[in-house]
Write a structure and sequence with these properties.
By secondary structure, the protein is mainly beta. It has no helices and 21 strands. The protein has 3 domains: 36 residues; 66 residues, no CATH class; 76 residues, no CATH class. The strands form 5 sheets. Strands 12, 13, 15, 16, 17, 19, 20 and 21 form an 8-stranded mixed sheet that branches. Strands 4, 5, 7, 8, 9 and 11 form a 6-stranded mixed sheet that branches. Strand 4 and strand 5 form a beta hairpin. The relative contact order is 0.12.
Length: 210
């Protein structure tokens, strides 16, 4: 939006309001040029919101619902939406039977998302030299784990070696629980540890390595 008098793009929004009819939705702005002080109006045409299919993952369950979004916008992985089941984070988008990370909303068939109002569930594997103790943990979504951390879990004191996230494997740095898929660790002969995850165990499996 440029000032019709001096052409400046330094514009202050004084007020805005939406107007709706059966055919279209518009946003009317009252604007003021910060350079010359001229006050003027501008009208932007919008597409009316419509429902889109939304599938929300919540631990081992999924919920199907819909969410009203404006086709004028764009959606990408990582965006947070407010659904009728609470806040969710978009994980992928389906367009013409293909999963993509970004798309115009008007092209979207299905939105896939994770609830951000529940703990993150991650896998944690302890390598026992031929056997593996495998755990499912429920952690605060912002909880940070780093390769090199010494951790108590169940009857083990272990050192984290690799973290597998949604996008890559980490051998340095750190990751938050909300992006972690699985943590790989090996026992160490330490008495001290950085933190104890025993209380966060949801499920435990014991299996032999193939």
């Amino acid at each position: 939006m440029d000032c019709p008098i001096c052409g400046s793009d330094e514009i202050e929004i004084l007020n805005s309001k939406q107007k709706s009819s059966k055919k279209k939705l518009t946003e009317e702005y009252l604007l003021k040029c910060e350079d010359c002080g001229h006050v003027f109006k501008d009208i932007v045409s919008l597409k009316k919101p419509r429902p889109y299919r939304l599938i929300i993952s919540e631990q081992d369950k999924s919920h199907k619902t819909t969410i009203d979004l404006s086709p004028s916008d764009e959606l990408k992985s990582g965006d947070v939406l407010l659904s009728d089941l609470g806040q969710v984070e978009v994980t992928s988008i389906e367009v013409n039977d293909k999963r993509v990370n970004k798309a115009k909303i008007e092209d979207i068939d299905t939105i896939w998302a994770n609830s951000v109002e529940i703990p993150a569930r991650i896998g944690f594997s302890v390598d026992l030299h031929g056997e593996v103790d495998s755990y499912k943990l429920d952690l605060d979504r912002d909880f940070e784990i780093a390769p090199g951390d010494v951790v108590k879990i169940d009857k083990h004191v272990v050192k984290v070696h690799v973290i597998k996230t949604q996008d890559r494997k980490l051998t340095s740095g750190f990751a938050k629980a909300n992006v972690i898929k699985r943590v790989y660790a090996k026992p160490v002969k330490f008495n001290n540890y950085d933190y104890d995850l025993t209380k966060d165990i949801f499920k435990k499996h014991h299996r032999k390595e193939l």
